[in-house]
Write a structure and sequence with these properties.
Elements (H helix, E strand, L loop, with lengths): L3 E6 L7 H14 L3 E5 L13 E3 L2 H7 L16 H7 L2 H6 L2 E8 L1 H17 L4 E6 L17 H22 L2 E6 L6 H9 L4 E3 L11 H17 L5 E6 L1 H4 L3 H6 L19 H16 L5 E6 L10 H19 L5 E5 L5 E5 H4 L16 H9 L9 H4 L11 H4 L4
Parallel strand pairs: 1-2, 1-4, 4-5, 5-10, 6-8, 6-9, 7-8
Antiparallel strand pairs: 2-3, 10-11
């Protein structure tokens, strides 16, 4: 029987999923391997009846440049009991599988790390290599290398946001945009910078002060007030969903926003539009301070995950897939593939990336780096001490809306 490779996809979709999967398939098929696709993410590894299918050249050639994921994904996380009782070793033995390729973000990478430890402990002759995926761009790759899917998502997000900005300019309104990014603000910042948004709010901004709903609101109001002083009646605010995940749940509840709560009393933010939530909170604040501003909410998230990948990701994902083959040939396992600027693949060992809990921690925006620092310094609009006197005609306490003071950046 031929040596085989099996591929699974975990988490949520990102542009380039199919490019990775089917480029891995093409590369290993050319190397004489049999290629198997596993549906259902990690759940398939711990099921007695996994759903698999053979991948040949024609299937790979038909789907490699499409959006979405041909292989059904899931967020299944195996328990310790699953590893001890339910790991489907026979799937590997009966198909002569030599390599498990996992494709996913930080959660999938963390589970890949557990898989690597399990295979090593059991001395099973199966290697595993992880391919870093996420539109959030929050896996710890060297030299600020992106995760695949990020650039395609940012491209489409910027397309939507600049259309929204034009709507704001045309109608003299403000549009409140929420962008995906559970634990990092890369996507929101990328969209904000690309569209010259007057203010982008990401969790990393609160590096010198505690994040609170009041501060988030005042940061947005700082842009409204500044643009009013400049005679500009329109604009957009981009806010990363992560800022709401980092808030004390009581703050959301006390803001009077209607939502459902889980069994622990935490607001189920995943079920609501963060743009609508923030827009509602802002409207209440406008009434409180007597500011006349018309706003509308816009959510950017699910609409950028399954689009066709742009050329950058088509190329990058192909290089990552070829990198998997090269690392396998060199005997590597328990690693994440990284491709440098010259296209050379390198192994990033999952055990070296893990934290004390064995998880792969997310890479956050470097708020001190040039990208963030220069955007906030030169493109954003906000209140500074030089505006205090003029701003008193709009609000009695302009110092409360001083952008840098709110963040303790000065």
């Amino acid at each position: 029987m031929k040596d085989s490779v099996i591929i699974l996809c975990g988490g949520g979709p990102a542009p380039g999923m199919n490019t990775v999967v089917f480029s891995v398939a093409k590369t290993f098929l050319a190397g004489g391997f049999r290629v198997i696709g596993l549906h259902g993410g990690y759940s398939g590894l711990f099921s007695k009846n996994p759903r698999t299918e053979e991948i040949d050249f024609f299937k790979a050639d038909a789907y490699f440049n499409r959006g979405g994921s041909y292989l059904e994904m899931s967020r299944f996380k195996p328990t310790d009991e699953d590893f001890e009782k339910n790991f489907n070793l026979s799937l590997f033995q009966e198909n002569n599988i030599k390599l498990l390729v996992t494709v996913g973000g930080d959660d999938t990478a963390s589970t890949a790390n557990r898989i690597a430890k399990f295979l090593e402990t059991k001395k099973y002759p199966i290697r595993n290599i992880h391919v870093p995926k996420t539109i959030d761009n929050d896996l710890p790759l060297p030299a600020n290398a992106p995760t695949f899917g990020f650039n395609s998502a940012k491209n489409e997000g910027a397309h939507l946001a600049r259309t929204v900005y034009e709507d704001a300019r045309t109608s003299g309104n403000w549009l409140i945009i929420s962008a995906m990014g559970r634990s990092a603000g890369h996507l929101a910042l990328g969209i904000g910078e690309a569209t010259h948004c007057p203010v982008t709010i990401i969790p990393e901004m609160f590096n010198k002060t505690e994040i609170t709903l009041d501060k988030i609101v005042r940061l947005a109001l700082s842009a409204f007030i500044k643009r009013k002083l400049l005679g500009i009646s329109y604009g957009t605010v981009v806010v990363a969903e992560g800022v709401f995940h980092d808030l004390d749940p009581e703050e959301i509840k006390n803001a009077g926003v209607t939502m459902t709560y889980d069994e622990h009393g935490h607001p189920e933010l995943g079920k609501i539009s963060k743009a609508v939530l923030f827009n509602d909170i802002l409207e209440k604040e406008f009434k409180k301070i007597g500011l006349k501003v018309k706003t509308r909410p816009v959510e950017i998230g699910y609409d950028v995950r399954c689009q066709d990948p742009v050329a950058f990701d088509l190329t990058y994902c192909t290089e990552l897939a070829m990198g998997v083959y090269e690392l396998y040939r060199k005997g590597e396992t328990g690693c994440m593939v990284y491709v440098d600027a010259d296209g050379n693949p390198h192994p990033l060992y999952l055990k070296d990336l893990q934290n004390a809990e064995g998880k792969i921690p997310p890479r956050r925006v470097n708020i001190e780096g040039g990208t963030a620092r220069n955007y906030f310094e030169h493109i954003c609009h906000y209140i500074t001490p030089a505006d205090y006197e003029a701003a008193k005609a709009i609000v009695p306490d302009p110092e409360a809306y001083d952008f840098k003071k709110i963040l303790s950046w000065q």
